[in-house]
# Entry
Amino acid sequence: METGDPPTGTRMFPASAILPAHSAYDVHRISFNGILDRRPAAIVPCTTTDEVVAAVRAARGAGLPIAIRGGGHSVAGHGIADDALVVSLAAMRGAHVDLERRLAHAGGGAQWDDLDAAAFAHGLAVPGGTFGDTGIGGLTLGGGLGWLMPIAGLTCDNLVEAEVVTADGSVVVAGPGGDEELLWALRGGGGNFGVVTRFTYRMTPIGPMFGGRIAFPATDAGEVLDRLNRIVAEHPTAIMPTVSLRAHPDLGPIVGVLLGIVDGSAPDAITEILRNGLTPLLDELGPITYLELQALTGIMPFGLRNYWKGHFLRQLDSPTFRQLAEAVGAPDAIGQSFILIEGLVGEGRREPAGGAAFGQRAARWNASALAIWESPQDDAAAIGWARRVADILEPSSLTGGGYVNYSPVDETAERVRAAYGTDRWERLVAVKRRYDPDNVFRFNHNIRPD
Ligand SMILES: Cc1cc2nc3c(=O)[nH]c(=O)nc-3n(C[C@H](O)[C@H](O)[C@H](O)COP(=O)(O)OP(=O)(O)OC[C@H]3O[C@@H](n4cnc5c(N)ncnc54)[C@H](O)[C@@H]3O)c2cc1C
# Structure
């Protein structure tokens, strides 16, 4: 018997299952977030829908709950769970485009790099996240905030069909011709309803863009916010404003703006609003392609310790913004910790045809403290800082909830529910009851069937 062979009593797992005694077990259970050290009962790597069906049936036969590992970037670590069967889609990364129907199809574990490469070659893109190595799976199912939001909405708004393996091992199509209510639920309701083995998206034509990084001293933070508000008011489909407040190792506290003008607007009018009379500490704005924009933020490595917490905001006034700018200079803003503020703009504020479960469209901003550090000794301080920043944001919160895709490991049921609001929540519960009455898929922003 090899080390990886299932011992007697676990033979119901597929032959490919990676069990705790397997030499590759530790590699396959790694979470993006270094504060997590979870030990699943089995990890089943899948490359086809049939293999996912077999894995789901095996989990049900063994009485195990199921965690779904897509691109592996959940900060709450939802893809890997203690004592669960993990359906790992890490190798299910195929992506191809149907130019005639202007659709893109991708496997349940594909990453944005996979899909971007396939679409960009044809002058097209699926509105995605801003990091190429994050998974399309979790990101789409929780909403999806990215550069193309002003012209094409959230990622989930562009999901037009999905193939889903449900809790009883059935294969269901969500969307027109299948279950439209399930598609509505998948557009923001997370991995609650089954394993999505294929995502099909509408694609958006893209052209040359303009953007990059520009940064100012944190003392200009309020002024920079006012100017971004003016840009959004005057050019509603040009940019998704993305602001970071952080302590730069050499420059001290700074307010950084990541700019991506995506609608073909002439850049001068926009950059003039941002630059006029201010002295940037850094100014790298220039012509840029969509793929370069997607690579702007680089890659955040697996294994750092992360605790993210925030709110979707009704508004962000200058006094609050200044309080946030001060918070990044505090001694407990440890390591690479920063505050990320993303604007909800343009098409992102409009409900897509057919609707979406995503429930924060009326918000102006998504603001989050991203505590990112290395030493376990700093856990209490770093987590305390993120919570303190979230407290500063709370009075401006639209519904009392944050972005489910950035939620921390100890996210409360109340905050998850608040992210959707009562009407959407009840509709989601009804879909959950139909597809997963036993809450087998519970390692997510959980919508309990009861
Ligand atoms: C470095 C970094 C950058 C990010 N940038 C952005 C950004 O620009 N915009 C943005 O909106 N978000 C962003 N996020 C948040 C991101 O949307 C979430 O972390 C998301 O969960 C990542 O999806 P994943 O498939 O990689 O995660 P995983 O950890 O693999 O999955 C998380 C959960 O999603 C569900 N899930 C994933 N795939 C499937 C599937 N095929 N079928 C059913 N359920 C599935 C499951 O519940 C799973 O447990 C970022 C996160 C990180 C860490």
About this structure: Confidence is low (pLDDT under 50) at residues 1-10. The CA atoms of residues 5 and 101 lie 45 Å apart. The two ends are 44 Å apart (CA to CA).
